[in-house]
Amino acid sequence: MPFGMAFGVAASEAGLEVWQASAFSVLVFAGSAQFAAVDVIGDGGAAVAAVVAGLLLNMRFLAYGVVMAPALDGPWWRRALRSHWLIDETTAVGSTQEDPHWRRYGYLLTGALLFTTWNASTLFGAAVSASAGDAIVDWGIDATIPAAFLALLWPRLGATDQRVTALVGGVVALALIPIAPPGIPISAAAVAVVAGWRVGGTR
């Protein structure tokens, strides 16, 4: 919820109306991509540049789809609807389960909870943005974004090869951040992680 509120404030400061910020969260529902897009818009960039930035950040979802697809069975329209909730958190929770039933249950329950809270907090953040802008930093709400990703990553770093793979991905991303467009560092880091997984056999 703090993450969603921070996005609502950021969207409002970038010039979006409350309804536009809310529609953004309903239709896109991908936090990092949404932040990248409003950052481009806030800096005066074109809508095409904002969309490209979001798409680059969301390239990692292709791998998530491969992981979750066997558990999300059914007709194509049902799979398409469920794929709207394919984000870091839902994949992290769902993929910890071996049984397809519980993998689907974890994914859908997490998706329903996060979709509801994300959109409610986006609406709240956008509506009170005039008084909440400084509070985002003062209360440390902006720190929830990296903290959430660390919480998702930490349980998967039990083995040495997993820690080495994560470290390589982090180094690649940090090296590219100063010189590459938004989305490229995380995409390159994902390639490095996949390469490490294939070589080292990590899961």
Report on the structure:
The chain has 203 residues and is an all-alpha fold. The chain folds into 2 domains: 2-154, no CATH class; 157-203. The protein has 12 helices and no strands. Helix 3 (31-42) packs antiparallel against helix 4 (47-57). It is globular, with a radius of gyration of 17 Å. The two termini are 30 Å apart. The mean pLDDT is 82.
Tell me the number of strands. Answer: 0
Class from helix and strand fractions: mainly alpha
- Indicate the overall shape: globular
Uncertain regions spanning at least 5 consecutive residues: none
Order of helices and strands: HHHHHHHHHHHH
What are the salient characteristics of this protein?
single chain; 203 residues; mainly alpha; 2 domains; 12 helices; 73% helix; globular
Question: How would the blueprint of this fold be written?
Answer:
Layout: H1 2-13, H2 18-27, H3 31-42, H4 47-57, H5 61-68, H6 76-82, H7 88-94, H8 100-127, H9 129-138, H10 144-153, H11 160-176, H12 184-200
Helix pairs in contact: 1-3, 1-8, 1-9, 2-8, 3-4, 7-8, 11-12
Brief overview:
The protein is mainly α and 203 residues long.
